[in-house]
Specification:
Order of helices and strands: HHEEEEEEEEEEEEEEEEEEH
Distance between the termini: 26 Å
Helix content: 10-25%
Largest sheet: 9 strands, antiparallel
Strand content: 25-35%
Radius of gyration: 18 Å
CATH architecture: Sandwich
CATH topology: Jelly Rolls
Length: 285
């Protein structure tokens, strides 16, 4: 019931984008609208491989997973940004100095969620919108399931402090060590600009990083693709965290930037599917 009420609130707040209320009512009749991102027009309902969808709206809408039961717990709530956003009517604004982070315990993840210790998938696809705010000079974690202090490294998407590029970092040797050849996207991000980031990592250790520069209206660079040298550690007990990485019982590598519409899959998206999500035209019948 909680999830239905939250989604109903989000739908009603977005009615200005519809010709009449019948459209919203019709959407509610489809599985209570779970998995539908209205303003972006993406519809993940029919995709059983979509295991997480966070629209990062205001109020309770900031933490709810509208695709599954992977609701975030607040460590320190990011600001609700209603001026700069890409989907719906808000984004989450993470500030390094405020130690903002949202997390999910491994034991609370739905079965099949990539990297979950029990029943997790060894295939991962992530799509999200990101707007960096400042160059802190330190590594900033956007999204992660990665705990170096506790020896539970799996995967994390980070903004490198030295060069301003997006990296995909993974663990090896049952999470006790990290891959020394973490791939980087070829071109650095610019502050105060929106980017759509698509990440895939499969069970054979093949990866892809695909980034769209929304200001320019083109891809920032060629996709970064390749294969990790060592097998990626998947089933580690670390938390899933937005805005930081785990550091045993604490957190580190805080993010300074805005994030919007994060979606996770337990299969490997094609480049066309990543682009459809960015364009708001994703459908899987």
């Amino acid at each position: 019931m909680k999830r239905v009420l939250i989604i109903l609130t989000l739908l009603l707040s977005s009615l200005s984008s519809y010709a009449d209320i019948d459209t919203a009512v019709g959407l509610l009749s489809v599985n209570e609208a779970i998995g539908v991102a209205i303003n972006s027009r993406n519809n993940f309902l029919a995709d059983s491989n979509c295991v997480g969808l966070w629209s990062l709206e205001t109020g309770a809408g900031q933490i709810v997973d509208t695709r599954g039961d992977n609701d975030f717990t607040i460590f320190d709530a990011p600001a609700e940004e209603t001026t700069y956003y890409k989907e719906w009517s808000a984004s989450a604004d993470f500030e390094t100095g405020d130690t903002d982070a949202l997390y999910i315990e491994d034991t609370d993840l739905d079965s099949g969620f990539p990297g979950k210790v029990s029943g997790g998938s060894a295939n991962l696809s992530i799509c999200l919108w990101f707007r960096p705010e400042s160059a802190t000079g330190d590594d900033e974690t956007i999204f992660s399931k990665y705990d170096p202090n506790g020896g539970n490294r799996s995967w994390r998407v980070k903004l490198e402090g030295d060069d301003g590029k997006i990296y995909l970092q993974t663990g090896k040797d049952s999470g006790t060590d990290f891959q020394t050849n973490s791939p980087a996207y070829g071109t650095a991000l610019t502050n105060a600009q929106w980017y759509h980031i698509g990440i895939t990592l499969d069970s054979s250790d093949n990866y892809r990083i695909r980034i769209w520069d929304d200001t320019v209206g083109d891809f920032l660079d060629f996709d970064a693709t390749g294969t990790f040298t060592d097998p990626v550690s998947w089933t580690e007990a670390s938390k899933v965290i937005l805005g930081a990485q785990q550091a045993d019982t604490s957190y580190s590598d805080w993010l300074d930037g805005m994030v919007d519409e994060v979606v996770v899959f337990k299969d490997i998206l094609t480049t066309d599917e990543i682009d459809e999500i960015r364009n708001g035209s994703y459908r899987k019948n």
